[in-house]
Design brief:
Layout (H helix, E strand, L loop, with lengths): L3 E2 L5 H12 L4 E9 L6 E7 L2 E3 H4 L6 E10 H4 L3 H11 L31 H7 L9 E6 L4 E8 L2 H14 L12 E3 L3 H32 L4 E8 L1 E8 L2 E8 L1 E3 L5 E4 L7 E6 L3 H5 L3 E3 L8 H5 E6 L2 E6 L4 H11 L2 E3 L13 H7 L4 E14 L11
Parallel strand pairs: 1-2, 18-19
Antiparallel strand pairs: 2-3, 3-11, 4-8, 5-7, 5-9, 6-7, 6-19, 10-11, 12-15, 13-14, 14-19, 16-17
Helix pairs in contact: 6-7
């Protein structure tokens, strides 16, 4: 059995998805935004029978996207976009280890899964972090669609809870941390498998609650608008699904579920257009395990884009990256996008263009709305991304 491949990929990424299939996978898919990840490629989908891949779900368990269509219009929001994005920065916490300025009470903290070791020791941290965004490619965006309706989009996951959970279970299962290693796969009915699934599902509830808090706060408290509809998905998660009459655990890392009629929010690169899509029923969609891209996909690593420090003759020298700050800012200016935070590793030049990767999946999804960004907020350039996926 060979993996189903969408789009064009380098040999390292192709080798990763083949390694996952050889390590207990029954079916595998590589989406068009795929690139090399930790043990399983980003954009990789692997179906297992009675097994779960801890490294496949990854370190940022339940990372995903939420888009809210509001009743606000471009004419009302665009003239104030600078002040609006300043308000987002003032009210929402971005970065590592940050806590929410407003304590969020949520019923998920009554879940019995918190009694599991080691989750109980992280409960207080999780309570403080609920509703914070994080760093790396995580963002808050304000968009307008083709009918000049304003949308708010967010992208982040389960924060420290997910990262600590993944790290714990990966180590407990004897797995290796790294890109060029086989995935860590455990039996579903084993003790570690059952505990991991409970932790993963809790992290999923946590990520949903965090994204809902942030996006709804921005709509109601900053835009002073109403909510018309929400589109919400994980793209780092495992689901028990039926395909071809058989039950599988389908592990998606950087891949959006797209079953017939299921809507998804897919972001582009910083300042690029995003889309609302819907899955369709077709032979091609079935071979894709009803999965599609989660974004545009990187074409260069973070260090390649922004540069890095190296020791040369005993001196610490900064080696420049492939993206220049003035080029990034001109690109955003020409697009009319207001940016707060961000750095060269998230520059548009470091990514594919979203229309190109969507075209590779044209037989599996339809685009319902195209969203043009007015404002983008990300963690500042002094924030290091702790997440590996």
């Amino acid at each position: 059995m060979k993996p189903v491949i969408f789009g064009q990929h380098d040999e390292a990424t192709l080798k990763q998805i083949e390694t996952c299939l050889a390590a207990g996978g029954e079916k595998a898919v590589l989406c068009a935004d795929g690139h090399k990840g930790y043990a399983q490629p980003i954009g990789g989908v692997v179906a297992y029978k009675d097994k779960i891949s801890i490294s496949g779900v990854g370190f940022d368990i339940a990372c995903g996207n939420l888009a809210i269509r509001t009743d606000a219009t471009e004419n009302a929001v665009a003239p104030n976009i600078h002040a609006i994005m300043d308000d987002v920065v003032r009210n929402i916490s971005f970065g590592i280890g940050r806590v929410n300025k407003n304590r969020v009470d949520h019923e998920l903290f009554d879940d019995e899964a918190w009694n599991l070791f080691p989750l109980k020791q992280w409960k207080h941290m999780a309570q403080e972090q609920l509703g914070t965004v994080g760093s790396g490619n995580h963002y808050v965006d304000v968009f307008v669609d083709e009918q000049s309706r304003v949308w708010v989009g967010v992208h982040f996951g389960s924060r420290g809870l997910g990262h600590k959970s993944a790290t714990h279970f990966l180590k407990a299962a004897g797995g290796k941390d790294g890109m060029d290693v086989p995935p860590t796969v455990v039996e579903e009915d084993s003790l570690i498998g059952q505990d991991y699934l409970a932790a993963m599902k809790l992290a999923g509830r946590y990520a949903y609650a965090g994204r809902e808090y942030v996006a709804r706060f921005i709509v109601r408290e900053i835009l002073k608008a109403g909510i018309e509809t929400e589109v919400h998905n994980h793209h780092n998660f495992a689901w028990q699904e039926e395909h071809d009459g058989q039950s599988y655990w389908v592990v998606r890392k950087g891949a959006t579920p797209a079953f017939p009629g299921q809507k998804g929010f897919i972001g582009g690169s910083m300042g690029d257009e995003a889309v609302i899509i819907e899955g369709v029923d077709s032979p091609e969609a079935r071979t894709a395990l009803f999965s599609t891209v989660h974004g545009a996909g990187r074409v260069m690593s973070r260090t390649a884009a922004k540069g890095h420090f190296a020791l040369v003759d005993g001196k610490r020298i900064r080696k420049p990256g492939l993206v220049r700050h003035d080029e990034m800012m001109k690109w955003l200016h020409d697009k009319g996008v207001v940016l707060r935070g961000g750095d060269l590793d998230e520059a548009p030049q470091a990514y594919r263009r979203l229309p190109e990767v969507l075209k590779a999946h044209s037989g599996t999804i339809r685009v319902l709305h195209t969203l043009r960004p007015l404002g983008v907020v990300m963690a500042g350039r002094d924030i290091v991304d702790p997440y590996k996926d």
